[in-house]
Structures are given as C-alpha cells and as structure tokens.
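Handout, section B. The chain below has 172 residues.
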Amino acid sequence: MNWHSAPAYKRAKLFIQKISQLAPLPNTFNIENSKDLIHKLRDTTILPHFTFVSLDITGLYSNIPVTETKGILADILKHKLIDSQMQCELLNLYEAITNHNYFTNNKNIIVQNDGLAMADPSSSIITEIFLQHTEHSHLACLTNKHSTVNYLSYVDDILLNLTLTTQKFQPS
C-alpha cells in the first residue's frame, strides 16, 4: 500500500513531528524489542502460581476509535499546557489526516471508512495515544482484580504475568 500520494501525507508527517516534540508519549508499558523484554522481565521472580498470557489485538489500526482519540489528544495537549493556537492547529491536522483516510493499492484508490489507514505514517502515533490512554485508565483496576505482576506491550501484542489464585466456593 502506498500512502505517499495521499493528500494528507505531508500533514501526517508534520503531525508526527509536532506531537513528538510538544507532547511525547510516556511509553510506560511499551517494550522496544526482545532484548528490552528480557531486561524488563529479568528482575521478576517467577513463582509457580504465576501465569503468562499473550494477547494480540486483531485489526489494530482499523479498530482505533478516531473521534474518541481526538478527545484524548485534546486532553493531553491541555495537560501539557500547549498554547491554545497550537492545540487548535494540531487538532485540525488530526482531523485532516483522519478524514482523508484513503490510499492506493495496486493503482486502486481504497477508502477506509473506520479507524486508521495502515499505510498512514501517523497511524502508529495516533494508535499509541489511544492505547496508552486506555492502559493508564484501566491498568490499576486490572492489576487489583487479577493480581497483575507485569504488563508489557509491543505494537499490537500484550504480555501479562498474572498471579492466579483459586477461589473456593463458600456457601453463605
């Protein structure tokens, strides 16, 4: 797929540059590669009652809620105290990129109605905005409910290390 010919290609590149500079993502749970994974797991004691779970997000880019993610981006920009004119510019860039959601494949123009275009260079950062917000919003509950020891993510893959406990039914 080729997104270079899409009208929003240069806007997408500018968007990536501006977001990376003004509001870099924390990447709290992200791993860079297998070496980084080993490094992060090295200090974890593996006990018999731990269970590793591997999850894969199916159709990641096409399932990102574009409107919701714009609201998340607006909140991030306000939290980072980005001036209102720059906030407006970045949100307008976001709109232009996500509304011009078409690309070429074998000389055919493909319009993607939902989510983000796979070949769009800004899709990865927009996806990370949504995923990292979701992780930070829900991970504390997950950790408490399921005794999560590790939560690590790499693009659309998630590795969980959980403490499993057997709960016996106690009649009242």
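Note. The chain has one domain: 9-163. Compare this with the example in section A.
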